[in-house]
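Hi everyone,

Forwarding the result from last night's run.
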Amino acid sequence: QVQLVESGGDSVQAGGSLRLSCAASGYTYSSSCMGWFRQAPGKEREGVASIYSRGGRAYYASSVEGRFTISRDNAKNTLYLQMNSLKPEDTAMYYCATITARCWSDEPEYASWGQGIQVTVSS
C-alpha cells in the first residue's frame, strides 16, 4: 500500500521560501514518476511540478516555473519541492502524488496522494 507523507508547510510572507518534503513508502519509488499538485479553496486542482524516476527532466506549471524546483532523493525515498519567491496566489494545500501517465504534462494521471500540507503566503 502506497503511503505518502508531506511535511514542511508553513505560513510565510510574500517573497519568502519553503521546502516541502514527501516521504514515500509501499511502492517502487525509484522507478516511477512523482509530482506535486495543489488546491486552493474554491479552485480546481493544479499540477505544480513532476519529475521522472532518475531525476533530470522535470515539468513545471507556468505559474511556478522559475520559482519552484522539484527534486527527489531515491536513496531516501523522498520527494522535495523547493519554493522560492512565494506569492499570495501560491496559498493552497499541497499534495505529493504518484503519477502513472503523462508525467511531463499539465494534466498527469495521479494514482495516489498524501493527506496534503498547507502553505499560506501573506502579502
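The CA atoms of residues 70 and 81 lie 5 Å apart.

Cheers,
N.
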